[in-house]
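Hello forum,

I keep getting stuck at the same step: I have a sequence, I want structure tokens, and every attempt I make locally crashes halfway through. Rather than fight my setup again tonight, could one of you with a working pipeline run this one for me? It's a single chain of 456 residues.
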Amino acid sequence: MSDGNSKEQQAKKSLADLFKQMVVDEKEPSPAEPPKSMDEYKFWKTQPVPRFDEEIEKEGPITIQTVDDVRKEPYPIHSSFEWVLLDLESEHDLDQLHELLYDHYVEDHDAVFRFAYSKDFFNWALKPPGWKKEWHLGVRVKETGKLVAFIGGVPGDLTIRNNDIKSVEINFLCVHKQLRSKRLAPLLIKEITRRVNLHNIWQALYTSGTVLPKPLSTCRYGHRPLNWTKLYECGFSSLPMGETKASMVAKTTISNQTKTSGWRKMEEKDVEDVYKLYDAWKSRYEITQIMTIEDIKHWIYGGDNQDGKVIHAYIVEDENNKITDFISYYVLPFSVLENPKHKELGIAYLYYYASEAGIGKSPNDAESQELLKKRLKSLVNDAMVEAKNQKIDVFNALSSQDNTLFLDDLKFGAGDGFLHYYLFNYKAAHISGGIDSKTNEFLDNNKVSSVGVVML
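Reply #2:
Ran it on my machine without issues. Output:
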């Protein structure tokens, strides 16, 4: 997290993969440059995505089709495999998905940390309003029934600048490590595309830690230790040169008490007011997710997950009982392997938020940005207090949304992980992800990103 010796740098590099949602085995290139020419992308050069060297003069779909044009049968797959639809109502299927992602999705190079997915997380991430079983696509070995690949899609309509787009979000693309030379990943993408197209949906949003043709935006991860001692004992953080354990604990200690007046946990009765806040707030960004009241109930409040196992949301009420702010984060722990003292790390990710302090205000207005900065620092600090009291060890945030207003002041360290945003079958001019295009450092001087979508 901080500058230090070579051992620390090596640990940072390996752990960066855990914050990039990447599933392909490729060397990580510079986030600013493509790792190879367009012609070397054997799969992507055949797909409706912009080329690296393409100047986008007009935004919109790349290809226009109708459902009648879509192949009606699944793409052929090797005879030893079969397509399957995972039933997330089934304990057996949930267990198989958990095992696949746990063993083969993303891990650090030393295989010390792994995402500890839960059934509650899958139900939250893959079953929002309008979810479809046919978009939970897997590949099993015919002979054994073992799940060896998966890709998931969920409804996720977008606003890109002033254009509303019917879309899906694609996530959790995972192929068993021993099968990554079998070209299963491109086949999964083609098949999920076919199934989405059959619903007359032609665009998709997805992210990757690797550079593909062509990033719409690139954000950088920031990490804020909440329990530095535990992170150090797990090998997650190293001791920077010139520091002591005591000094690092002192530098990262935060209060146990929230300070924002009117702060409380979000309740179901707040859903409509939070929806209104979100809907007014999202105009600050050039790409946002369109959410209904039901979407807010699921994604922010948590729906059936209101016991707080995955998503945590808080609101601020003024003296007239009007909700002026909300903030949320989700929890996805790491399992810690081969450590005699700790078995799990609590990891929180900043999710959506909104504040009246920024609604109707331009990010170019220096005075309003200062007021918003002060407000967001208070909200995020209190969210971290809540997370700390829930035994969370690290609080993560991307450089998206208005996060660059508080990342440095709240002692988020810039990570080595970058997250690239992509659109399928849609051309759009580049959108700022909150980092300097030359240095890749977080933007400063109250400059912010234009990315308002938070991908899991």
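DSSP finds nine helices and 20 strands in the chain. If your local run keeps crashing, start a new thread with the error log.
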